[in-house]
Design a protein that fits this description.
Layout lengths: L13 E6 L2 E4 L5 H20 L18 H25 L9 H18 L1 H4 L23 H10 L24 H13 L7 H19 L25 H10 L14 H14 L4
Antiparallel strand pairs: 1-2
Helix pairs in contact: 2-9, 3-9, 5-9, 6-7, 6-8
The chain binds heme C (HEC) (2 copies).
Length: 288
């Protein structure tokens, strides 16, 4: 039922629709609305021309600007990469001990070092660098091979008793196995070693052990038993033990020797990464 008629009140035609006596006026669209609508059509034509728009069978129309969000991403990545390359070069050329004075470079090294440590080192030294028997704790400020950042760098780059030509070596001899000392002497010198950090050891054994120590051990561990980073000989006077500080373990160390291997990273990680890790490890120990 549609019958167009004139509405009495407003004088506008109705659409002719009638719903239970309710009728609809046929007012024209507002001007502003129409013009906006036309404008969007014109805009969209411009958009087709300028930007990628139409899918084709195996491609799409590229538009005169040739824009693509992927190309933009590539460009952004390239510029980030370039920024990083320059900071990497800066780190590689820097004097390690000075990096601390350059906050931006230092921050970069620490965060890179932290993540590279987690990937490469945590399986042996622990995720918190706390170490384990035979694998040194890197958090304390007790170092076998020196705790300056340069010494740490050298350890990481060339390893210890590793297969690298420039590795550091130095072994704890097997005094019993190689028949340098008798069983009793090994036990005595172990007592002496323990007496350096513990009260209440057997005084007679300690006296005998001190003599053995002076003859056989002082050359590497030092007369005062404070260790020597040149041979990686641990300090025996602190109560920090690398292999373990109970008598049995110490007797075992002296009897059979020790020579754990820290791999060299020279061929596996690039220079910048080795430097980042060195600075990170140095920062853990409080740093000498
Ligand atoms: C396969 C196990 C292993 C891995 C992996 C390893 N280390 Fe070691 N690391 C050792 C052992 C064992 C020693 C002790 C060597 C020794 O007996 O003197 C050591 C010693 C060190 C030392 C010397 C500690 C001191 O007191 O002087 C530093 C520093 C060190 N490692 C850092 C690292 C870093 C950094 C990484 C990763 C890039 C790493 N290590 C990966 C086994 C490992
Ligand atoms: C040629 C040098 C050298 C001589 C001599 C030597 N040591 Fe060592 N000693 C070392 C080195 C190096 C280590 C560390 C081994 C390692 O890193 O695996 C070590 C480790 C030890 C440890 C383990 C410390 C720990 O924290 O677990 C003890 C204990 C020890 N030596 C006692 C002695 C005693 C006692 C003698 C004399 C009977 C002696 N050493 C003679 C080089 C030496």
């Amino acid at each position: 039922m549609s019958k167009v008629e004139k509405d009495e009140l407003s004088g506008v035609d109705t659409t002719g629709h009638d719903w239970d006596g309710i009728k609809e006026l046929d007012n024209p669209m507002p001007r502003w609305w129409l013009w906006t609508f036309y404008a969007t059509i014109i805009w969209s034509i411009g958009y087709w021309v300028v930007y990628p728009a139409w899918p084709l069978v195996s491609d799409y129309t590229k538009g005169v600007f040739g824009y693509s969000s992927r190309a933009e991403l590539h460009e952004e990545l390239a510029s980030v990469e370039e920024g990083r390359a320059s900071i990497t070069t800066e780190l590689v050329n820097a004097d390690l001990a000075d990096v601390k004075n350059n906050p931006q470079l230092y921050q970069f090294a620490l965060s890179g070092g932290r993540s590279n440590y987690a990937v490469n080192c945590s399986q042996c030294h622990g995720s918190g660098a706390q170490g384990a028997p035979g694998f040194p704790n890197l958090n304390d400020d007790d170092w076998l091979w020196g705790g300056s950042v340069d010494a740490i760098y050298q350890t990481i780059k060339y390893g210890i008793r590793s297969d690298h030509d420039e590795t550091r070596t130095g072994e704890m001899p097997a005094f019993l196995r190689d028949e340098i000392l008798e069983k009793d002497q090994v036990s005595d010198v172990a007592e002496y070693v323990l007496s350096l950090s513990q009260e209440g050891r057997d005084p007679e054994a300690v006296t005998r052990g001190a003599e053995v120590y002076a003859n056989e051990c002082a050359s590497c561990h030092g007369e005062n038993a404070r260790g020597n980073p040149e041979f990686g000989a641990p300090n025996l006077t602190d109560a920090i033990w690398f292999y373990g500080g109970d008598k049995q373990t110490i007797v075992n160390t002296i009897a059979n020797g020790r020579a754990n291997v820290m791999p060299a990273w020279d061929d596996r990680l690039d220079e910048s990464v080795i430097r980042q890790i060195s600075l990170y490890v140095h920062s853990l120990g409080g740093g000498k």
